[in-house]
Amino acid sequence: MFRKMMAKLGKGGAKVDLILEKQDYLPGDDVQGNLVIQGGAIEQEINKIDVELIMYLHSGKRELNHTLERFPFHHTFIIHPGEEKSFPFSTQLPKDLPVSGNQVAFFFVTHLDIAQAVDHSDHDYIKVHPLLPLQKVLDAFTDLGLREKHDSRSFNGYTQEFAFFPSSFLKGQVEEVEFVAGIEEDRIHLLLEVDIYTWTGEREVRHECTLEKSDWENHHSLTNTLRNILTDMTNQPSSYRKPTKHGFHKHSGLSKWGGTVGGFATGALGALALSEWMEDMDDIGDTIEDSFDDVGDFFFGDD
């Protein structure tokens, strides 16, 4: 009787553990593992098991955990004391997920629904790494002496932004270099922004470029290409676009461009969660109105 009462309170009850084959993935990778249920001190009925893929977002003082996908296992069964049951688990990660960083994280939450007792849950973090074309660009930036900032890889509601500061190249001329990316099978699109020091103050300039596979496969060539582009943007800012300001509603279609890094999260968040995430964010007007009109034009063309 005592053991039954304690099990109902969660002490000595059945437990669940999602055991994954690995913790490191690329967007679009298959995730394989096993759901292991360990029986407790008494016989218990398991109503169902649910697994959720959660995206954690952080920006300033705001945090958000949002379910990207849910995988229900509606299979009722009895687990006996000390018994172990195992079920295979597999899914595929979306191809245009944001990549992991200080501002974005991913984990699976597994819920074990136990009849007439306290449920049990399990948390398993995974790390999503950049696809090869994006990693090649990040490596080239590193070789140029551009270091990723602590708040790089932030998700602003539409796509993921990568931010760098100069440690050698462009140091003293540029405060920050940022880009957003869109990846296709044989090319990567970049929308670059450089914040330049001028005698009248800081000036932002933007440039759109597309790097074909032949461009990004060769590390030396890619590094030189990016060096030349960034040098020209810094030395000839009048030749490049300045940010424009328009309503951000024009960019709701950005997430439909499948290769946009972070585009999946926009659709998965939905309007309600997206508005919750963007509410009270610092400088959200600048972030959206100032930059993503350019992104929308880049990926979809001018209206």
Mind explaining what this structure looks like?
The chain has helices at residues 2-8, 132-143, 213-216, 219-235, 263-278, 284-300, and strands at 15-20, 24-25, 30-38, 44-59, 62-73, 77-79, 84-92, 104-114, 120-128, 146-148, 154-155, 160-166, 174-183, 187-198, 201-212. The chain is of the alpha+beta class and 303 residues long. The protein has two domains: 1-128, Immunoglobulin-like (Sandwich), CATH 2.60.40; 132-244 and 262-284, Protein Transport Mog1p, Chain A (3-Layer(aba) Sandwich). The strands form three sheets. Strands 2, 4, 5, 6, 8 and 9 form a six-stranded mixed β-sheet that branches. Strands 10, 11, 12, 13, 14 and 15 form a six-stranded antiparallel β-sheet that branches. Strands 1-3-7 form a three-stranded antiparallel β-sheet, with no helix packed on it. Helix 2 (132-143) packs across helix 4 (219-235). The longest helix has 17 residues, at 219-235.
Element order: H for helix, E for strand: HEEEEEEEEEHEEEEEEHHHH
Q: Report the sheet-strand fraction.
A: 35-45%
Main sheet: strands, sense, barrel: 6 strands, mixed
Structural class: alpha+beta
Q: DSSP helix count?
A: 6
Q: What fraction, in percent, of the residue positions are helical?
A: 10-25%
Shape: elongated
CATH class of the largest domain: Alpha Beta
What gap, in angstroms, lies between the N and C termini? 71 Å
According to CATH, what is the topology of the largest domain?
Protein Transport Mog1p, Chain A
Query: Please, what is the average pLDDT?
Result: 81
At CATH level 2, the architecture of the largest domain is 3-Layer(aba) Sandwich
Q: How many separate domains?
A: 2
Number of strands: 15
